[in-house]
Design goal:
- The protein is an alpha/beta fold.
- It has a single domain, classed as TIM Barrel.
- The protein has eight helices and nine strands.
- Strand 8 and strand 9 form a beta hairpin.
- Bound molecules: zinc ion (2 copies).
- The site of one zinc ion has 5 residues, from loops.
Length: about 270
């Protein structure tokens, strides 16, 4: 495996993981990883009935610092955050980005119109295509509203939850919505994440799918980050060999990792 860095990981500082950070680190060491970045959830305005996704950042930072020194000769551990964006949260997310010395900031969108598409009820009476379009246009608005991010996570996350998932989805069918997002990422010098979590849900593709990655490359996009989005030890670096094969096939020659919000380019 030549990808030895996983830059999208959760631990029990995220409310949807039970795994102590140290267990994630031990699993990463066993998998032969050299550098990992925790990216705990921070969704500042999540619908109350769906739970809270707000990490206790001071406690999280303290535990990272402790474990960085415990494991300093074995693995590099970085301090990141996954910001759940919504159009009205731009200024609050930017303030948070300045408040803490994050190594890496992941911009994510988990909601559409303030609601969580993860729940089946959400889709009642809704047309999948319309929701997907709404998701993409909101994502562009979100990215434009808050420039303090390094990568865009799971760009087509919504297709994990649609009634037909990715059956009728491809770059081509949403090109008019996806192109402006990809161009914006490139113009701003940001990265696009290849998130392998979808593969473990049986979607057979990373997020975003190969057709989107291909288009990113065609438009001149070169900067990629790679993350498993693992919430449990066994999913660390999940299917990274497949991600690597896809990226090489599409002509990508490197990926980025971050330290103090600055990229390091690692050859593939
Ligand atoms: Zn996410
Ligand atoms: Zn995540």
């Amino acid at each position: 495996m030549s990808i030895t860095c996983d830059f999208h990981l959760h631990s029990n500082f995220s409310s949807d993981s039970d795994t102590p950070m140290e267990d994630m680190i031990q699993a990463a060491i066993k998998r032969g990883l050299k550098t990992i970045c925790f990216t705990e959830h921070m969704d500042l305005d999540y619908p109350e009935e769906c739970g809270s996704f707000q990490a206790d950042i001071p406690a999280y930072k303290q535990e990272i610092c402790r474990l960085q020194s415990v494991f300093q000769d074995i693995i590099d551990i970085r301090f990141g955050i996954e910001l759940g964006m919504q159009p009205h949260l731009g200024p609050r997310c930017a303030a948070l980005a300045h408040e803490y010395p994050f190594d890496f900031i992941v911009a994510s969108q988990h909601l559409v119109g303030g609601q969580d598409p993860y729940y089946r009820d959400y889709w009642n009476g809704k047309e999948e295509q319309i929701v997907y379009r709404e998701y993409f246009s909101e994502l562009l608005t979100n990215l434009q509203s808050m420039k303090e991010f390094d990568t865009v996570a799971h760009l087509d996350y919504i297709v994990r939850y649609g009634p037909n998932q990715n059956q009728f989805y491809s770059y081509q069918s949403y090109a008019d919505h996806i192109d402006p997002i990809l161009k914006y990422i490139i113009d701003q010098g940001k990265c696009l994440e290849v998130n392998t979590a979808g593969l473990k849900y049986g979607l057979k593709h990373p997020n975003p799918e190969e057709s989107v990655l291909k288009r990113y490359r065609e438009l001149g996009g070169e900067r990629i980050t790679i993350g498993s989005d693992a919430h449990q030890p066994e999913h660390i670096a999940y299917d990274f060999a497949k991600a690597e094969a896809i990226l090489k096939e599409l002509g990508f020659q490197s990926y980025c990792i971050f330290h103090g919000r600055k990229p390091n380019i690692i050859p593939l």
